Amino acid sequence: MPIKEGENIERALKKFKRKYERTGVLKELRRRQYFTKPSITARENKLHAIYVEQLKREEE
Length: 60
Description:
By secondary structure, the chain is mainly alpha-helical.
């Protein structure tokens, strides 16, 4: 990442961290650390959908 002459190093580091965070590299790395079977993912999604639906019904 290019740094302008006379630019504060803390500001440049903050800029770099924001740019790095926006790319989603860290999130992708954490997601790939372990393998989750597709059936487990589907089950979790289904349970979450049921939970959200129950919350919506309680509000009504």
